[in-house]
Design brief:
- By secondary structure, the chain is an alpha+beta fold.
- The protein has one domain: Alpha-Beta Plaits (2-Layer Sandwich).
- 29% of the residues lie in helices and 21% in strands.
- 31% of the residues are buried.
Amino acid sequence: MPYDPNQHNRRSLRLHGYDYTQAGAYFVTICVQDRRCAFGKVFDGIMRPSSIGEVAHRVWQEIPDHFNRVTLDAFVAMPNHVHGIVFMVDDDAIRGRDTTRCGRDTTCRVPTMVDTLDEQTGKDANLEQFGRPVAGSLSTIIRSYKATVTRWCRRNGHPEFAWQSRYHDHIIRNDHALARIRHYIHENPLRWHLDRNHPEQRG
């Protein structure tokens, strides 16, 4: 059976009792509010990003600049959602890593996550411990990513842009699952016409 994040994550958005700060691999899906196609369009199986879609991709690639326990794997920005694989690595694996790139470069046009940690607008369910972000957790990473993209939109003529308040995650437990999810992400544009998030599928 092919991997379908909408089906496999339907029962619970967070795994009860799981420590989302520990080393591991996570498959993350984040949707635009009301599934609006803000990130671009798919033509002949190829994603053509809008300016917001380009920023959504760029900010995702900058996550390790601000969270030094994170490495990234496959990613795709679809018209109204993004899929990505996040690896949380052990502390020993990050010694010596340079985390001073675009986030501290004054010529970088995209606001940094450091600037937007506390600027997420609207209700955000990605909070833990009685509404307080947990440093280094997956929820904090995704919250910061969403806030950074939202802030860029507010400053660049897209005040209507908003994320869905929650996100979906799937813990990747073995190499077989990792390979399957990578394939799913890479093939996503080719299968857009069948995606349940496609406007025609939801109509």
